[in-house]
Amino acid sequence: MRYIYPALFMLGLVLLIPLIFSLVTSLMRWNLVPRRIKWVGFDNYVKIFKDPEVWHSIKLTMQFTVLSVSIEMFLGFLIALFLNLDFRCCKFVRVVVLLPMMLSPTVIAMVFKLMLNYDRGIINQVLAAFWGSGAKQVWLGKEWAFWVVLFVDVWINTSFVVLNVLAGLQGVSVDVIEAAVIDGANSFQRATRITIPLIKPVLLVAVIFRTTFALRNFPIAYVLTGGGPANYTQFFALELYKEAFTKYNVGYASALSWLLIVITFVMSVMYTQITMKGEQ
User: Fold this and answer.
1) Percentage of residues of the chain with pLDDT beyond 90
2) How far from 131 is each of 44, 120, 135, CA to CA, in Å?
């Protein structure tokens, strides 16, 4: 037991101490400019419920989380089923599919931002070449910005779901699948009544991880839109960033971060309870 004490000590340094510090900070009115520290108790948390910008960001974040996680789980499952087949160059295809997960989201977002540029972006140039200049779109304007951020997130993170589901599929016994084929089960029945129940724990892990990261979506939206235009992509993480590093309201930003922790924890418990209830 004593051999894990150094690991527990380091875990406390990098995890528990910052959490406790942020909790204490959330109970203060801590402004960096002008520098002012005052104990206010739960005033920051009360302010959250009265702040329309925060609720707007929560609504956007929830919409984004539901859509992104649903699409990624659906596409990831289908792609994993395909990659689980034994075909020529399957190993090469697996590596290519998993590449987006290995790249920096910031770099990918920068590339997409260049591609979506109204005047010089390759996408608008292709549209103009085939259908004229009238076909060009302001991809990062209020009409498309949310959907562009969603598309880039799905493009990057579907590979994470593929990796998890593929690992689960590799653990499914071939004998079970062959027995189902002999019994006359078609592909859809095998997927819904055999494969999914057997890999349900893997799916749960993928859903929890993707939900956690989707709720904290920051680099993609920050690089592509910066929260604009007109707060159309002002997700919760961007609102937290604005309070901490633009308005320098450290205490209020700490309270927002704890709200995010609570939302993430509640959703994780909810997923787990639904899954366990289904198994019972």
Assistant:
1) 46
2) 53, 16, 6
CA–CA separation, 248 and 142 (whole Å): 27
| CB of 185 closer than 8 Å to CB of 193 | yes
Task: Enumerate residues 6+ apart whose C-beta is below 8 A from 142.
Answer: 229, 230, 232
Range with the lowest mean pLDDT among 104-108, 135-139, 234-238, 269-273?
269-273
- Residue 84 is encoded by which pair of tokens? 């689980």
Q: How far apart are CA 65 and CA 249, in angstroms?
A: 26
> Which of 254, 236, 260, 242 is closest to 30 using CA atoms?
254
At residue 226, the 3 state secondary structure works out as: coil
The pTM of this model reads 0.90
CA distances from 272 to 8, 39, 51, 66 (A): 26, 37, 31, 16
- According to DSSP, the residues that pair with 36 across neighbouring strands are 31
- Helix ranges (H only) for the chain are 5-11, 17-25, 43-50, 52-83, 90-102, 105-115, 122-131, 145-170, 174-182, 187-190, 196-198, 200-215, 219-224, 236-245, 250-279
Residue 38 bridge partners (DSSP): 29
